Amino acid sequence: MIGGAVAAPGYVLGSTLGALLAARLIGAAEIAATLSEILGTRVSGDLAWTYFLVSLVLSAILEAAILVSVSSAAGAWTKRD
C-alpha cells in the first residue's frame, strides 16, 4: 500500500499535466466543436474548458483511488498465508 500511496501523486500529476498540455494544443474552440457535435447542442469554448478541467479532477481522483487499491490488493496477495 505504501508503494501505491507514494507513486499515486506522481502518476496522477503526470497524467493530468499531459492531458492539460494536449488540450492547450488542441484549443478550447476545437474541444467545444467536438462537444457540440457529440451532444447535439451548442457548447461555448469557456464551458468546454470548464468541463475539461472538471473531468481532469475527477479522473485524477479515480486514478489515485485505483492505484492505491490495486497496490493494497497486491500487497495483501503477497502477504497471504
Topology readout:
Blueprint (H helix, E strand, L loop, with lengths): L1 H25 L1 H12 L5 H35 L2
Please provide a written account of the structure.
The chain is mostly helical. 89% of the residues lie in helices and 0% in strands. It has one domain (2-75). The protein is built from 3 helices and no strands. α1 packs antiparallel against α3 (45-79) and α2 (28-39) crosses α3. It starts with a helix and ends with a helix. The mean pLDDT is 88.
Task: Provide a compact summary of the structure.
The protein has one domain (2-75). It is built from 3 helices and no strands. It has helices at residues 2-26, 28-39, 45-79.
List keywords for this structure.
single chain, 81 residues, 3 helices, 89% helix, 0% strand
